[in-house]
Amino acid sequence: MSIVKPYLTTRSLVPENQESPISFLRTSAVDSSLFYKRNHFSYPHLSYSSYWIPISGLVETPLLLSMQDILQLPSKTIEVVLECAGNKRSFLRPKVFGEQWEKGAISQGFWKGVPLRTLLQLAGVKQGAKEVVIEGYDAGKRTDIDGVFSYTRSLPIEKALHPDSILAYEYNQKPIPYKHGYPLRLIVPQWYAMASVKWVRQIKVISTAFTGPFQTKDYVYYPHKENDEDAFPVTFMHVNSTIQAPADREILKTGKHTVKGIAWTGIGQVEKVEISLDGGKTWLPAELSPAGDHGYSWRFWTFDWYASEKGEYAILSKATDSNGHTQPNQPYWNRKGYGYHAVDRIVVKVE
């Protein structure tokens, strides 16, 4: 008998954007073959042996480091969830343009690398530094601006110096796969994954605000459809949860069922997940798995449900974190569809 294996769902081929099979993510470390892919351009062509990374700008000593140099520096391993800022975009109403992600633009695992702070300290950050710009090797044309652009983002100097912002070279104890940033990618815990630049090409310390298009045009919340008023940048992940089982529109038999899923947040950690079996009228506590060491990983949750009566049921999940943030009933609509974190909802039928 053949074994059916889970697979990624393709949202676009060029560039390659694929969702993880969210119902099959049952461990803390997602296998690299099931890790979601988010790209703005085609994959770059790189050689590990000739890979060098310059650190320049507002520093005392500009550096040019090889991978061998980086591998000799003190490293750390952290468990981090990466969520695309557009995850669940397809559920927004009115609908918005952009990759129509459902629930699978999220994955996590163990990343090993060198703290970005270590490299910046080696170079010596000068007084007046405001941001650290990280440029990736992936580049191409945009539809809204003429010219060729590399995928480049910046971090505030405070976030760049955070001990857990790392330049990673391993994922789950193996070299980072080529399609996920090999040989070196930035990992920024707590922030949406647009900050975790892949295929790092260079690092530059600047004294002003970076204004590249992936900083000031994309990954910005635009609350209004017709204008850019009240816009503000996408940064920290919102508290969120996803129901993994049962599946939406699944037909069940009467009896005991386990509702299960994941929950995560940006700052702090998830402290509570509640389940509703009556469309949000009443809420009951789910059982949470232990929290991770750093609070950067998702928590699994389960809820045992005895379905004694036939009919349709709306099942909802709602997470609350240690800062008191709770998933809202309605999503925050914004023109580019970022940061969806409303209460998750599925409908099942019991026969």
UniProtKB/TrEMBL annotation:
Show the Pfam families listed in the entry. Mo-co_dimer, Oxidored_molyb
Q: Which CDD domains does UniProt cross-reference here?
A: SO_family_Moco_dimer
Give the molecular function GO annotations. Answer: heme binding; molybdenum ion binding; molybdopterin cofactor binding; sulfite oxidase activity
- Needs which cofactor? Mo-molybdopterin
What are the record keywords, sorted? Answer: Metal-binding, Molybdenum, Oxidoreductase
SUPFAM superfamilies membership: E set domains, Oxidoreductase molybdopterin-binding domain
Claim: Metal-binding is one of the keywords in the record? yes
The highest taxon in the source lineage is Bacteria
Q: Record keywords: Metal-binding included?
A: yes
Entries under InterPro entries matching the protein: Ig_E-set (IPR014756), MoCF_OxRdtse_dimer (IPR005066), Mopterin_OxRdtase_euk (IPR008335), OxRdtase_Mopterin-bd_dom (IPR000572), OxRdtase_Mopterin-bd_sf (IPR036374)
* GO BP: any one term: sulfur compound metabolic process
Designated name of the protein: Molybdopterin-dependent oxidoreductase
Organism of origin: Metabacillus lacus
